[in-house]
Amino acid sequence: MNMNRCSLLAVLLALTACGGGSGSGSKSSSSSVVSSMVSSSAASMASLSSAVSSIPSSAAMSSVSSSAITSSISSASSSSTPVVIELAENGGFEISEAGSTAPANWSLATNGGTAAIQVISAANQPSNVHTGDRALEVAINTIGANPWSIETTHTGLNNGGIPVVGGSIYAYKAWVKGPAGAQANFTVGTPAPAYAERARSNVTLSGEWQEVSIEVTTSPDDTLLRLPVHFSLAANVGATIYVDDFSFTKVESITYEYSPVTVESLRSLSPGNMPIGVAVAAGNSAISPLTNIPRQTVVTQHFSQLTAENIMKPSFLQPTQGQFSFGDADALIDFAEANGLKVHGHTLLWHNQIPTWMQNFSGTKDQWLDVLRTHVSTVASHFAARQSVVSWDVVNEAFEDAGGRYRGSAANTGSSVWYTNIGPEFIEEAFKAAHAAAPNADLYYNDFSTEWNRPKLDAVVAMVEDFQARNIPIDGVGFQMHVWGNANVATIREHLKLVADIRPAIKVKITELDVRLNYVDPPLSANAYTPARADQHKALIKGIVEAYLEVVPPEQRGGITVWGVADVDSWINSLYGRPDWSLFFFNDMSPKPALQGFADALSGN
Ligand code: XIL
Q1: Rounded CA gap, 363 and 420, in Å?
Q2: Keywords for this entry (predicted)?
Q3: What element of type H or E holds 64?
Q4: Which has the least CB within 10 A, 26, 514, 555, 566?
Q5: CA-to-CA distance for 464 and 466, rounded, in angstroms?
Q6: Which atom of ligand 1 is nearest to the CA of 396?
Q7: What's the rounded mean pLDDT across residues 222-240?
């Protein structure tokens, strides 16, 4: 290859791993400012040379101009983390052989369509190479039904994604040429499994070379991105399209100024000392407040009640039939009591997170009832001895996700070993056993989606009223309240009130509050936790807490529990395989505007 003719339009990725990654540490805790700093450092030089020397082709090295290197270094970070600089000339295909159908760092996915890519040379097709020696040719034969069929992607070096700095602006440039009316959709997105889109430009082709220029704002949590170009459009069938001169360069870091957070202690603002709870990890978890001091500080400063996020579920407490394992839970209760915190037990029965032996147990209905009663009685009586354990989720999620039937009662209602082997009366049996074992604890039925799903809520209300009519002990209903950022507060208020209005009155508790803000689909797509997004989060939390205080009389308030401490701790991240900003503390443990929204609602501001 004649490198002298190369235009040096290398994809030059000058990238900084900003302090701690995942958006953590890049925000000052005092003023809630996110900033990624820019300057040069010796560390950047060291990693630059190692990145360059790892490029297999020495010809590629010689093609890197010193001015390009210098400019990339001068925009690198001064953070203590080494700067990562990756070079792949023209996205990899400039250093690939002409005729190659598998250029370095590029992939072709056809998902039902048929297409071919190959590297072409200026020598053979001068007008189809924009600059330099090579361009990428994409010949589209047929398209598939899948909207992502015919996707040509710069997958990053060694297919690992392009390392990027979260919370930054990148300039993505490319050139494209194809028949007038054909179309190429240039996108930027996160790697599998999330494939969240960060930016796109749909280009209608003109027959001439056209420049594509996209400004990309990375999410604070982004570490890797890909550059897929989509051709799955009817107008492209039979078209041959050329792309060239890719570059993806960091332009600047973003400084976020979030609205101020002044709350010093959420719990101290709680009207009537209603419990303000938080779900916590425990056992040997690195984020347990027993050992993780930053989390311990937050937990004891702001909250008055704990829920074990996992370790009081059946799989943890009775891993082997008849052998109960209370060590981790007891340690958590010790911690709670040493710090003046109450504990809400979660959960005596659930269809999830039960031990394998229980899941696979084979027996008659009576034998299953035995299993149920043994577990509920043993666990509830063990903790009844601890003054801090004031309440329990006795049964969790017994109704189907979609509507009002019992989970497991029909096709498409999900499955529950309890329903299958005992029938609907497993619920009342659990409440009776719990009440006998822990007569002083408030006993809750807990479920999700009840804040918006009326058939599901109606089923829960009907169950409570039926229990009351038959003297089955039940003290309250827990709304998990795992909401989306566009949740409707008026509906939430109405649904809380439907439970608060049950007579005789029962308690209403928000048991697992968090908010999903990183949507998969436009138009709700949220690329970054911008100040506007943080304020939307704050307003929603304020609305939910206000609604709760408005419709639940003081004596019926079981309190409000948030489902985790820092965003990075949240189960929402792994639920969707992408980062989110669901909770009340940034990853450096500084409070988010959402905490202020909670505080403002508690104090009536
Ligand atoms: C979740 C935990 O947060 C995760 O760590 C665990 O892997 C799965 O369970 N509803 C509930 C909670 O009642 O117990 C769930 O907690 C979240 C949904």
Answers
A1: 12
A2: Carbohydrate metabolism, Glycosidase, Hydrolase, Polysaccharide degradation, Signal, Xylan degradation
A3: none
A4: 555
A5: 5
A6: 13
A7: 92
Domains of the chain: 106-250 (2.60.120.260), 274-517+539-564 (3.20.20.80)
- Could you give the CA distance from residue 331 to residue 11 in angstroms, rounded to a whole number? 53
pLDDT for 57: 27
pTM of the model: 0.71
Output helix, strand, coil percentages for the chain, rounded to the nearest 5. Answer: 30, 25, 40
Active site residue 512: yes
* Non-local CB neighbours of 54 within 8 Å, separated by 6+ positions: none
**How far is residue 474 CA from its own chain's centroid?**
34
Among residues 208, 451, 512, 555, the one annotated as catalytic is: 512
| Dihedral in degrees, nearest 10, Cα atoms 514, 440, 416, 510 | -20
Report how far residue 165's alpha carbon sits from residue 219's, in angstroms, rounded to the nearest whole number.
9
Residue 15 has pLDDT above 80, yes or no: no
Pocket of ligand 1, candidates 352, 444, 571, 576: which has the most ligand atoms within 8 Å of its Cβ, to mutate? 571
Dist. CA 576–CA 370, nearest whole Å: 37
The preferred substitution site among 416, 563, 573, 583 for testing ligand 1, maximizing ligand atoms within 8 Å of CB, is 563
Does residue 137 contact residue 108 with C-beta atoms inside 8 Å?
Answer: no
Helices 66-74 and 42-53, axial angle in degrees (round to 10)? 140
Residue 80 clears pLDDT 50, i.e. is over it: no
Residue 478 pairs in a beta bridge with 446, 509
